[in-house]
Amino acid sequence: MVNNTFKIDIHTHIMPEKMPNWAKKFGYGGFISLDHHKPCCARMMMDDKFFREIEDNCWNPETRMHECNAHGIDVQVLSTIPVLFAYWAKPQDTYDVARFLNDHIAQICQRYPDRFVGLGTLPMQAPDLAIKELERCMQIGLKGVEIGSHIEEWNLSDPALFPFFQRAEELGASIFVHPWDMMGKSRMEKYWLPWLVGMPAETSLAICSMIFGGIFERLPKLKVAFAHGGGSFPATISRIEHGFNVRPDLCAIDNNVNPKNYLGKFFIDSLVHDQRILDYLIDLMGANRIALGTDYPFPLGELEPGKLIESMPYNQNTKNSLLYGSALEWLGMELEDFK
User: Fold this and answer.
1) What Cα–Cα distance (Å) separates residue 298 from each residue in 54, 83, 136, 271, 291?
2) Greatest CA span in the chain, whole angstroms?
3) In this structure, which of 26, 43, 98, 307 has its CB flanked by the most CB atoms within 10 Å?
4) Rounded to an integer, what is the distance from CA 250 to the centroid of its chain?
5) Backbone torsions φ then ψ of 43, nearest 5 degrees
6) Could you state, in chain order, the average pLDDT of each consecutive group of 10 residues for the chain (339 residues)?
7) Residue 174 and residue 236: Cα distance in Å, rounded?
8) Second CATH level (architecture) for the domain 8-14+60-333
9) What SS3 state is found at 330?
């Protein structure tokens, strides 16, 4: 049953219905295309290799709004599907892909400003181009960007990426970090383990990289949210702190501040599938740092958006933080922007 509380879903993915033939344009493969093999469905193809089947809620904003209405979701934050990041490609080519994807999201947000907020994607393997496109994203009405949990061989602590984070802080851009290209995937070919094991580890890698790399220390106003309830980070933060305390020679080489000091300095989404875990996260980080996120429209997400939060015996102030308050703070927006 849907109640009347305002809801903002910060973790949803979208792509255009029609994709250019990037392989033909750039002269090499590895890019995603869509095979619309039947009505309202398409196969995502990486060259000739099947990647995933999607439905029209992955590209059609009207379908999305219809489904959101059914679940009482008022606003979705749109970001690209991580397989489209193309960090592996030539930087100028990724820049062209990013501009196409960002224009698509911006157009949807301009058409339905009360229903959608947009995040861009960037050629992060070339920080100068990433900054250039970040600035354009903010100019065309997007509120920030989605980036991967690592950029090819760079973790997010890599000095090459610091100018990007610095510019994002200056612009007030929101950053959503999503796992992709999961570590150890060559050893996890069965049982869907890259998604079940690799993704949570990737998110913890991203958080630890930004903490130990001193990103949050040097850029205290940077607005970062991490997907999937922070992955495995919340469950291992005490181990991380203990390692910092007993081996500062290995852990504190770039930042000598206790990792637990950064709890509350960044945001996570609520996608944890478990009442006890959500209780723990609120105790660990505070409800004002956890925002509703569903991974819509994919099956590993919350299939009934907002149901977990609404099922909890929290007071209304706590639920309001989880359902929209934290999202608004992260995005730098007000509730009145949608009413």
Assistant:
1) 8, 13, 29, 12, 18
2) 59
3) 98
4) 29
5) -95, 125
6) 77 97 96 94 94 96 96 97 97 98 98 98 98 98 98 98 98 98 93 96 98 98 98 98 98 98 98 98 98 96 95 96 98 93
7) 25
8) Alpha-Beta Barrel (3.20)
9) helix
